[in-house]
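Severity: low
Component: inverse-folding endpoint
Summary: output formatting inconsistent between runs
Steps to reproduce: submit the following structure tokens with default settings.
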């Protein structure tokens, strides 16, 4: 082992140990545990719900807009389909699209933010000014604009939501990176003429993972709301496919007769968003106490 690799290895262990400490201590908070539990509940419903649904989500099983009964615990929707079956089958799109959009958005924002902060050159201004243009568009307007032109494709909605989150994440990561680049271990790595991609991956990335975890929770929460809103407006999942946001839109005209076809999917979306918000806030509070 060469003498130059020892300090870099020792330094890399510091941020990793600190991250473990932050996440372990965040689990001691009640709100973090509640948030993880609520999120896990919705994810389990989304994954296994279609397997236990009593009916096909597209079958017309009774008269429209019927109240709860022994055969149909949540009643029927505006076409006479079983609401329980559609609720159990309608969570997969919201869950996977929200997680995918948040993951992609955070990954893009982290990559661009680290590159901008580390470059310390015209590239920094170029990246951040370009992202400012994206930031100028409201998220819903940006998504609806391109969906209206290119069609209601699930992957397109995911990409558009991810792009809309990229500027916010990049700003946070750039701020952390501009502080880290002047630390001794980064300067030592540069003195050893290590490739920039290795410095970004091994020396800078470990220091931005903790704030990225908070950003991920926030972006996931807002992705849930945005995915549901797009479906509610008719630009997301298309009938007759089950989707919680679409169910709210389809059944709102019968809200005064039987509210469950609207209230139950809305509650599932709210529980999912509340759960992700709780655990992300728990991590954020732990980080705030650690950094004091």
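Observed output (run 2 of 3):
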């Amino acid at each position: 082992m060469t003498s130059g690799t020892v300090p870099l290895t020792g330094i890399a262990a510091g941020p990793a140990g600190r991250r473990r400490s932050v996440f372990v201590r965040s689990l001691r908070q009640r709100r973090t545990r509640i948030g993880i539990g609520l999120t896990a509940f919705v994810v389990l419903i989304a994954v296994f719900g279609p397997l236990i649904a009593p009916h096909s989500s597209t079958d017309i099983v009774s008269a429209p807009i019927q109240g709860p009964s022994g055969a149909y615990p949540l009643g029927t929707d505006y076409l006479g389909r079983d609401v329980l079956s559609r609720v159990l089958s309608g969570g997969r799109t919201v869950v996977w699209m929200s997680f995918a959009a948040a993951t992609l958005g955070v990954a893009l924002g982290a990559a661009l933010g680290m590159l901008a902060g580390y470059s310390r050159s015209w590239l920094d201004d170029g990246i951040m000014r370009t992202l400012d243009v994206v930031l100028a568009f409201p998220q819903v307007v940006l998504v609806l604009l391109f969906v209206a032109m290119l069609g209601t494709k699930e992957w397109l909605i995911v990409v558009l939501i991810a792009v809309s989150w990229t500027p916010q994440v990049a700003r946070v990561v750039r701020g952390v990176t501009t502080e880290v680049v002047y630390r001794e271990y980064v300067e030592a790595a540069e003195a050893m003429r290590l490739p920039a991609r290795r410095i970004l991956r091994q020396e800078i990335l470990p220091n931005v993972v903790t704030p990225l975890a908070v950003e991920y929770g926030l972006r996931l929460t807002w992705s849930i709301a945005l995915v549901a809103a797009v479906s509610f407006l008719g630009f997301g999942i298309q009938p007759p496919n089950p989707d919680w946001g679409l169910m709210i839109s389809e059944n709102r005209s019968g809200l005064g007769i039987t509210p469950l076809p609207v209230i139950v999917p809305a509650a599932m979306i709210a529980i999912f968003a509340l759960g992700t918000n709780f655990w992300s806030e728990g991590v954020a509070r732990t980080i705030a106490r650690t950094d004091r």
